């Protein structure tokens, strides 16, 4: 009789592998087989740990959104006043958010799913709420909303534009929203 191999990290490896597969080929190119191969697990592990591809995608995108939220919070929680917040946002947009090509693809894939399916919309809603909560330490709710939208838009524009964007333009836009 064969013994089962104890593998407590298998589910986590599958989730991380799903994110890698999505980053390479998009949601449309993601299959149980490709994720299992990337995670180095038997195909049967996929259905053991996840009842459907949607469940795996929800778990993977929730993990992704949580990781980005944590990076966002770490950078912005260090700010103690509006000037420091403006500086932190510029650094976040130009240096931290745009460094990983996978982050852009995963963000856009999540947005596309959220536009089509309410379950994924909840992931983006929770992500935006966490971002605004961090910003609301120093600004009111409306300003947090506007600044969060600016950060998201700049992240996408800077990531996709082949021409490097001037940090001064970002700084001016952020300072304008902050009324500085």
UniProtKB/TrEMBL annotation:
Domain HTH tetR-type positions: 8-68
Keyword annotations from UniProtKB, A to Z: DNA-binding, Transcription, Transcription regulation
DNA-binding region listed in the record: 31-50
Origin: domain of life: Bacteria
TM ranges: none
Molecular function via GO: DNA binding
A Pfam family reported for this protein in Swiss-Prot or TrEMBL: TetR_C_31
Xref: PANTHER family: HTH-TYPE TRANSCRIPTIONAL REPRESSOR NEMR, TRANSCRIPTIONAL REGULATORY PROTEIN
Protein name: Transcriptional regulator, TetR family
């Amino acid at each position: 009789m064969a013994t089962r191999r104890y593998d407590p990290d298998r589910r986590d490896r599958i989730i991380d592998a799903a994110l890698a597969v999505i980053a390479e080929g998009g949601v449309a190119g993601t299959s149980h087989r490709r994720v299992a191969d990337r995670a180095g697990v038997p195909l049967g592990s996929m259905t053991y740990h996840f009842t459907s591809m949607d469940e795996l995608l929800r778990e993977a995108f929730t993990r992704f959104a949580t990781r980005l939220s944590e990076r966002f919070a770490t950078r912005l929680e260090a700010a103690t006043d509006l000037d420091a917040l403006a500086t932190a946002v510029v650094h976040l947009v130009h240096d931290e958010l745009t460094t990983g090509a996978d982050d852009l693809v995963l963000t856009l894939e999540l947005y596309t799913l959220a536009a089509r399916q309410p379950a994924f919309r909840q992931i983006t809603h929770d992500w935006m709420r966490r971002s605004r909560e961090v910003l609301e330490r120093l600004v009111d709710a409306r300003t947090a909303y506007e600044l969060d939208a600016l950060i998201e838009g700049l992240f996408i524009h800077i990531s996709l534009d082949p021409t490097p964007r001037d940090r001064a333009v970002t700084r001016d836009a952020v300072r304008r929203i902050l009324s500085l």
